Amino acid sequence: MQLIPSILLISAATVGLHVAVDEFLFSLTGKGSDDYFRHSIIAKPLITCATCMASFWGTVGHFYLGGDFALWPVTVLACAFLNTLFNRWVS
Asked: Following CA atoms 55, 61, 64, 66 in sequence, which dihedral angle do they give, to the nearest 10 degrees?
């Protein structure tokens, strides 16, 4: 897959996952994901921080979509940047 479509796909998927989990926890407990997972170390790069999610989900998505090792840092950094922009736009 080409680089720009894969970056857009990974960023949209991770921000969508972040928003879906946050809305689900808010409807279930009345608290957002930041309050619910306050003391969890592993939850931040997995679901609670849209910018931090690029480190884990960007790596998984990049290699799942057939990316090579040379473009991996570019993909992760671009996903972190787009996740920050998308998260500000969605929330």
From this structure: -90
Note the pLDDT tens digit of each residue in 61-70. Answer: 999 999 999 9
Q: What percent of the chain has pLDDT over 90?
A: 51
Q: Quick one: 6 exposed, middle or buried, by C-beta within 10 A (0-12, 13-18, 19+)?
A: buried
Work out the average pLDDT over 19-33: 80
Domains of the chain: total: 1
CA–CA distance, 1 with 62 (Å, rounded to integer): 9
Domain span including residue 9: 3-90
Query: Alpha-carbon distance 42 to 84, whole Å?
Result: 19
Concatenated DSSP letters for 31-89? S-HHHHTTT-STHIIIII-TTTHHHHHHHHHHHHTT--GGGHHHHHHHHHHHHHHHHHH
